[in-house]
C-alpha cells in the first residue's frame, strides 16, 4: 500500500512538473512572438524619415518574414508595392506574347501545338500588337500588311525591343522589392534604395534602344554613337546614385534632375530622327506616342519632387493617394506609351527593311 501511495504521489508530482514546464514554454514563446505594429512618423528610426507629410502607418525594423506577409495588409507602402508589381506582370505578359516572334521560341511552341493551338498564339500576338493603335486606318496603311515587296525577306532583329521590355520589368520589380523590404533594417534599406535608383536608370537607358536601333538601322554609325552615349550616361548616373551621401532624402531633387537629364538627352537623336524621316507616314504617330511618354514621365516626376497632394493635407493621404503612388502610375503609363511606339518602329522596319542607298 505504501509503495502504491508513493508511486501515485510521484506520478502526480511529475504531471505537475510537466504542466509547469509547458506553461513556462508557452510563456517564453509568447515573449518571443513580438507583435509588429505600424508606427507614426516621429517613432521611426532616423534613416526612415523621408517624407514628413506621411504621418502614420509605417513599418520599421520588421523581419523579412513579416515584411513579405505585409504585402497583403494595409500600410503606407501597400499601393506602392502593388502598382509596380502589377506593372511588372503586365510587361512580363507582353514579353511572353512577343516571344512568339522569335524563331527559336516559335519552333519550341510548335512542339506543343497539340496543347496550345498555334493560331490562338498568333491571334493573341496580333491583337496585342494592335492594342495601342488609335484608328483602324493606321492598321490598313501598315506596310507590314499591304506591301508585298520589301527590301528584305528577313525580319529585323528583336533584341532591342526585348532589351526595353527587360529593362522595364527590372525597374518595376526592383521598385516593388524596395517598397516591400526597405522596412527591414538600415543596411537593407540603403541597398534597396540604391537598387531602386539603378532600376530607374536601367529603364531609361533601355528605352532608347528600340527607337534608335530601328530608326538608324541603315545608318549604323549614328546608331552606335547614340546607343553608346546613353549607355555611358546611364552607367555614370548609377555610379553617382550609389554614393551613400547622395541617397539621403535631402538629395531627392538632385536625383530627379539626374533622371531628367538622362531622359532629355534623347532630344538630340529625336530631332535627328524626325528630320531624316520627315516624309515617313509613321512619323506623326510615333512622335505622338513619344511625346505622351515624355509628358507622363515629367508629370510623374513633378508629383515625386513636390510631394503633392500630401503636402497640402498631411495625414490624409498616408495609405492611398500620396505623391509616390501617383508617380508610379505615371511611370507605367509612360512605359506603355513607349511600348506602343516601339511596336510601330518594329513593324515598320520589318516591312521596309534597310535600303542602303538611303541617307
TrEMBL record:
GO biological process, one term: response to hormone
Mode of membrane association: Multi-pass membrane protein
Keywords: Membrane, Metal-binding, Transmembrane, Transmembrane helix, Zinc
Organism superkingdom: Eukaryota
Biased composition, class Basic residues, residue ranges: 1-20
Predominant cellular place of this UniProt entry's protein: membrane
Matches recorded under InterPro entries: AdipoR/HlyIII-related (IPR004254)
CC per GO annotation: membrane
Protein name, entry field: Heptahelical transmembrane protein ADIPOR1-like
